[in-house]
């Protein structure tokens, strides 16, 4: 029996088998796409700028070293606190590497701000993350 324009059953089967690994590889690549460290920094900065923290004296945002292949990039925001016994730490933030969710590392609260959401949507679009795949990728914050 012939299929289509002279295509045998064997040729059709070979065509289907040859195309299948490409689909599997593509799906696997989507699962492992991650935001860059620079994008993670931009996300935290968008939130901190919206809160007005970037205007504090000697504001700095430092990336913490990665520990044990973490699923998060970690940042510490600091400033030169003029109070003698005041803390210099504004906060510690974890950015999930696949979704770009920004978490307060101490309070287990996902940070939200209009400019942060806009940047997250832009990054997620670049990564090909749809609303349904985002729901699948979403996870609790670091240590939560």
Q: CATH homologous superfamily of the largest domain?
A: type vi secretion system effector-immunity co pseudomonas protegens
Q: Structural class from helices and strands? A: alpha+beta
Overall outline: globular
Mean pLDDT value:
83
Distance between the terminal alpha carbons, to the nearest Å? 60 Å
Largest sheet: 5 strands, antiparallel
Radius of gyration over alpha carbons? 22 Å
The CATH topology of the largest domain: Nuclear Transport Factor 2, Chain: A
Unreliable stretches: 10-17, 21-30
Q: Give the assembly state of these chains.
A: single chain
CATH architectural name of the largest domain:
Roll
String of helices and strands: EEHHEEEEEHH
Helicity level, as a percent range?
40-55%
Q: Output the number of helix runs.
A: 4
Total strands: the figure is: 7
Describe the structure.
This protein has 144 residues and is α+β, with helices and mostly antiparallel strands. It folds into two domains: 1-32; 35-137, Nuclear Transport Factor 2, Chain: A (Roll). 42% of the residues lie in helices and 19% in strands. The chain has four helices and seven strands; from the N terminus they run E-E-H-H-E-E-E-E-E-H-H. The protein has helices at residues 9-32, 37-51, 114-127, 131-137; strands at residues 2-3, 7-8, 60-63, 72-78, 89-96, 102-104, 109-110. The strands form two sheets. Strands 3-4-5-6-7 form a five-stranded antiparallel sheet, covered by helices on one side. Helix 2 (37-51) runs antiparallel to helix 3. Mean pLDDT is 83; it is low at 10-17 and 21-30.
């Amino acid at each position: 029996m012939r299929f289509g324009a002279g295509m045998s059953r064997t040729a059709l089967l070979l065509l289907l088998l040859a195309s299948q690994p490409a689909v599997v590889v593509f799906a696997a690549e989507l699962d492992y796409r991650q935001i860059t460290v620079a994008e993670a920094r931009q996300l935290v900065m968008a939130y901190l700028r919206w809160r007005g923290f970037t205007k504090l004296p000697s504001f700095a945002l430092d990336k913490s070293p990665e520990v044990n292949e973490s699923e998060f990039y970690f940042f510490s925001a600091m400033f030169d606190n003029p109070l003698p016994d005041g803390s210099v730490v504004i906060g510690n933030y974890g950015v999930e590497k696949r979704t770009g969710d920004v978490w307060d590392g101490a309070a287990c609260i996902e940070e939200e701000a209009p400019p942060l959401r806009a940047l997250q949507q832009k990054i997620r679009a670049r990564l090909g993350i749809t609303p349904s795949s985002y729901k699948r990728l979403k996870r609790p914050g670091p240590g939560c």
